[in-house]
Amino acid sequence: MAERKGIEVSLAIAESASACNVDCIAAYPITPQTHIVEHLSELVADGELDAEFIPVESEHAAMSACCGTAAAGARTFTATSSQGLALMHEILFIAANLRLPIVMTVANRALSAPINIWNDHSDVMTERDVGWLQIFAENGQEAADLVPICHKIAEDKRVLLPIMLNFDGFILSHVVEPIEMLSRDEVANYLPPYEPQQRLDIDHPITMGPVGMPEVYTEAKMAHEHAVRSAYGPICEHLDGFAKMFGRAYHPVESYKAEDAEILFVMMGSASETAMSWVDEVRAAGKKVGIVRFRLWRPLPVADFKKAIAGAKVLGIIDRHFSPGGPGGPVAQEVKYMMYGEKNAPKVVEVVAGLGGRDLDDDAFNNLFDKCSKVLGGGDVPPFELIQVRGGHYGKA
Amino acid sequence: MSRQIPNPRWQDLAIGCATLEPGSSKYQKTGDWRSSRPVWNFTQCIKCGVCTVFCPEGCLHINGEGYPIVDLDYCKGCGICVNECWTGCIALEEEKD
What we know:
The structure holds 2 protein chains of 2 kinds.
Chain A: E1 4-8, H1 9-19, E2 24-27, H2 34-45, E3 52-55, H3 59-71, E4 76-80, H4 82-97, E5 103-108, H5 122-125, E6 133-136, H6 140-155, E7 163-168, E8 176-180, H7 184-190, H8 214-229, H9 232-246, E9 253-256, E10 263-267, H10 271-284, E11 289-294, E12 296-298, H11 302-309, E13 314-319, H12 330-339, E14 347-352, H13 362-376, E15 385-386
Parallel strand pairs in A: 2-3, 2-4, 4-5, 5-7, 6-7, 10-11, 10-13, 13-14, 14-15
Antiparallel strand pairs in A: 1-8, 6-12, 9-11
Helix pairs in contact in A: 1-2, 1-6, 3-4
Chain B: E1 36-40, H1 50-54, E2 60-62, E3 68-70, H2 80-84, E4 90-94
């Protein structure tokens, strides 16, 4: 078993991408992702990683270059955050629909304005519909482990889709954690060299990205929907394969003390780990509470989620992004979509919190827990509420 | 994607809707995008060939008598030939059907 070493999570991700022996990195620096691509550029410059590092002029160009290198058959890695992910927006659809297996880590960060470089999930949640696979890490070990797993999933011939590996900006990206790093040889046992199914090759010319007239566009979208949804099987297979080889098991939906819980929190990302400590304290006081987290977000693991929450009476959902003037946060929307029409569905209490780097702390968890307890005791389900806000959400103190 | 299958089902599409064989424009005709077509008055044509040079689709050719002819399977009616013609012998006529 590999040795644990203290390493900044961003550097661990870069080392992990290097251990995957990526062929090409096209990236533009943006806080809080910068250390990843900075370190990769050092590894390439020092000759430790035999790869092409393309220092582009923007994230739009970064994703465009990634499409080019992936189309040419190169194992392609990049990283971005917030405004950078937003600038990639139109090319994200193209990477997905051309079925290019790019791996991109996203250090989740708020979007301007006001200018804010700190953590929430508004960058990734506004990119829900681009047709990429989307997965979340909760700590540095997971972020480092998920890099080879993501390459394995993306490059599987049954999948062939780009994948976003999300991890919380600063809270994870800039923290030094003890991480068991995999060597290049260990990764090579898990992740064989990439063999593209089809690629740009002047000796065997093909056209990628031709016009899709109205008589074929709907069929192209159906093919893509099928590809994303049916990636679920291979994703589980490769998570299991990693667990068998390296002993660390990851699942599409993760649970913590959920079995007998009456109140279940639903959340994503690093805050789940803070919430686990809080759960331990509340459990010690005799309250039946637990946590369910989405690790896999696209494809949405509906069956796993329903299984994980079976028996719960109230779900308390924490969203770190919301649609102003709309129906609240994305996690709550999708959970309600999964529950609609279900017999004995749990009640859903939703809050929006942890925006732009505001800490998700015990106060926030207690606030949500109080709301859930009232509903458990027979109270009405309140509408979504933005908590942690001075002045209150529409008159609520 | 192979357009040799008319109206393909989604299961018939290549990965990423790619076109897997070269030369697909031979069967993927694009002339039906056109709303008007160029028409020549050969009595004024001096056979200079400038229209064939400027055609962005490369769908103008010279016939055996030296006059330009248009391949309507690909002409999109852009009117560049009309604009470039030295003698003004090409007119753009609206497609009736």
